[in-house]
Amino acid sequence: MLRAWIPDLTPTASPTRSTWCTCDLSIGTPPQPVHLSLDTGSDLVWTQCQPCQVCFDQALPYFDPFNSSTFSVLPCHQPMCQQNLDWSSCGKQYWGNQTCVYVYDYADNSITAGHLDTDTFTFAGADGVGSASVPGLAFGCGLFNNGNFQSNGTGIAGFGRGALSLPSQLNVGNFSHCFTPMTGSEPSAVLLGVPTNLYGNIGDVVQSTPLIQNTASRNEYYLSLKGITVGSTRLQVPESVFALKQDGTGGTIIDSGTGMTSLPQDVYNLLHDAFVAQARLPVYNSTTAAPQLCFLVPPQGKPDVPKLVLHLEGATLDLPRENYMFEFEEAGRNITCLAVSAWGDLTIIGNYQQQSMHVLYDLANSLLSFVPAQCDRL
């Protein structure tokens, strides 16, 4: 999906790092390291490649196809090119005719364009012990890349439901991630094909909710959201507002590539009003965090705010404060803001709300499970 970011709030803003979970792996023979941002709302796996025409800055060298003995261009007549990309064509490049050329865009108007290729991927083993190499995985060599991409990354690792995603190509039955707090610097864990158990905090109960298939949109992971509670108030929203419509529009997805949770405008308005009514704090019209709902915090400390609970089919996501409020200073004032926004007719549970949770995508059984966890200890 790759849509929303938490505002860059200075000078003492929270969070202090971008809202991304990244995958460190290598491509090619010999292996060339890449640093890919995990996005469960898209499929294409891609990295910036030489000779990069329009590219964002990255700390690592661009992947160089000519330095890999296992690199191979993917012909445009292959089904992987023709059937799994919204836009692709045959291109003539100096490495050969009939190359699969793609343009891939995201919901925030970010875009990557390049050629689809195959090469060997090398993954680190658990706890950094050993490694595993998988030949012939398809990926995009991005030559023209512009948009809301992570500055210290090299591309995107699509973990969606389509054939081009990394879990689909590896044919794993599940994957999981655990996002460390956004205000910290510890790396987040991504696990592929591990046993379908979750590692959480002692005493916390694992909860599960069904994954729903949307035949009109092959990429995203849809859930059944039943309602939202703010403090002591269950918002008066019919379940049909959150439901997936017959034409494939609407519905609720969970997405690691979106920062804040977003709601349809009418639902957000009810959420906004419920927070204002129950927070008992002055509303603060921030120029930095606009259009977020913000409150002025008294000098003596961090006051209570209403609870935020998402009611899913068979599960309840009772969010801790740090998963839906963020604090910063502006003009000498202490401010707290709600990390929820309004956007379109789709409900998106973003990665800010998934902090400090081990989230398992059980693809074989179409279940999403989650449990609170200390993610830097997985």
UniProtKB/TrEMBL annotation:
GO MF terms held by the record: aspartic-type endopeptidase activity
UniProt cross-references to Pfam families, sorted A to Z: TAXi_C, TAXi_N
Family: Belongs to the peptidase A1 family.
Gene3D superfamilies: Acid Proteases
GO terms, biological process: proteolysis
Annotated organism of origin: Lolium multiflorum (Italian ryegrass)
Full protein name: Peptidase A1 domain-containing protein
Domain Peptidase A1: start-end pairs: 21-371
Keyword terms: Aspartyl protease, Glycoprotein, Hydrolase, Protease
